[in-house]
Amino acid sequence: MRIQLAKGKQRKLIESAKKERTWEELSRELGLSEGYIRNELRNEKTLLSDFVYKKACSLTNQNYESFVVNKLKDDWGRSKGGKLSSGSTKNINVPLETEELSEFYGIMLGDGNLTKMKAHKVGTYQIRIVGDSRNDRDYLINYVKPLIEKLFNVKTGIFKIKNENAICLSVHSRKLVEFLEEKEFKPGDKIKNQLGIPDWIKKDKKLLCACLRGLYDTDGEIYKLNEQNSFQVVFTNYNERLINDVRKALQDLGIIPSRIYNGKRLFITKKSELGKFLKHIGFSNFKNLAKIKTWNL
C-alpha cells in the first residue's frame, strides 16, 4: 500500500521524523537508504509505503490521517510534478547477458530505482539513478548515460535535483522497466523487496565482477587510512540480502573481505586482497579512478 498525502505534507512528515536525528539514524529507523529518504521521499518524488508512513508518524508522535488523500496499491506511484505520463512503449534494444549489462544492473542495485504505476489506463514506467552532483557528475554523464543508451538504445534525461547535492539520470520506457522486471529487478523499495544479485549474474565470474564494479562505483569508496601508507575499500548498503550477496560474491572470487559491521558496512583492507579487488573488479567511477592514479595503486 502507498500513502498519498496532501501536497507538502509528506515533506513535512519526513522532516519532522528527522528532527533531532541524523539522516543515518533516520535511515536505520525506516530501513531505507539515506539518499532515498532525502532525495525521493522528502522531495515527494515517491509515495510513502504504508510501513514507512506509520513508522514516521510514530517517530513524530503525530497523526497525519487528515492529510491522506489516497491509498494506492504498491505498484502505483507518482512521476515528477505529480502528473501521470505514459512511459514510452517504443521498442528497446534487448541486450544479451553481457558484462556491460551486469555492470548496469549493479549500478541500479546501488543508486537506481524502478517505478511502475498504472492509473486510469495511463501509466508511468521509469528508471532513475541518483548520485552526488559534486562527486558523481562526470561518472553519470560521461559513463553511465552512454552505457544505458548503448545497451538499450533509449533516450536518457539528466537533471539536477533542486536544493539538493544530487543529480538524476532518468529514462521513461515501459519496455525497459518490463525487461528489468524479467531480470528480477522489482519496482519500488529495494530494501523492502530485498533485492539482491540474481542467479544469472552469480553463475558467471565475469558477470559477477562487472556487477560488483557497478555496486562499488555507487555504494563503495576507496580511501587512504590516516597517517598510514595503507588503503581501504568500503561498501555501504542497508539491504541485508544485498550486502550478504556482495560479501559472498567477493569470497567466491577469492577475495577475503571483513565481516559485516553494523549490518551495513563491508571492508577490504589487507594489501593482497585490495590488489585482487583492483585487478578483477576495479572501478569505472572517475572519482575513484582519480584516487587510484594519485596513490599509484
Keywords:
297 residues, alpha+beta, 434 Repressor (Amino-terminal Domain), Endonuclease I-creI, four-stranded antiparallel beta sheet, 42% helix
Q: Can you walk through the features of this model?
A:
The structure is a single chain. Strand 6 (157-160) and strand 7 form a beta hairpin. The chain contains twelve helices and ten strands. By secondary structure, the chain is an alpha+beta fold. Helix 1 crosses helix 4. The longest helix has 16 residues, at 137-152. The protein is 42% helix and 19% strand. Among the domains are: 2-72, 434 Repressor (Amino-terminal Domain) (Orthogonal Bundle), CATH 1.10.260; 199-294, Homing endonucleases (Endonuclease I-creI, Roll). It is globular and about 60 Å long. The strands form three sheets. It has a four-stranded antiparallel β-sheet with strand order 4-5-7-6. The model is unreliable at 74-86 (pLDDT under 50).
Write the layout of secondary structure elements.
Elements: E1 2-5, H1 9-18, H2 23-30, H3 34-41, E2 48-49, H4 50-60, E3 68-72, H5 99-111, E4 112-119, E5 122-132, H6 137-152, E6 157-160, E7 166-172, H7 174-182, H8 199-202, H9 205-219, E8 220-224, E9 231-236, H10 240-252, E10 265-268, H11 271-280, H12 286-294
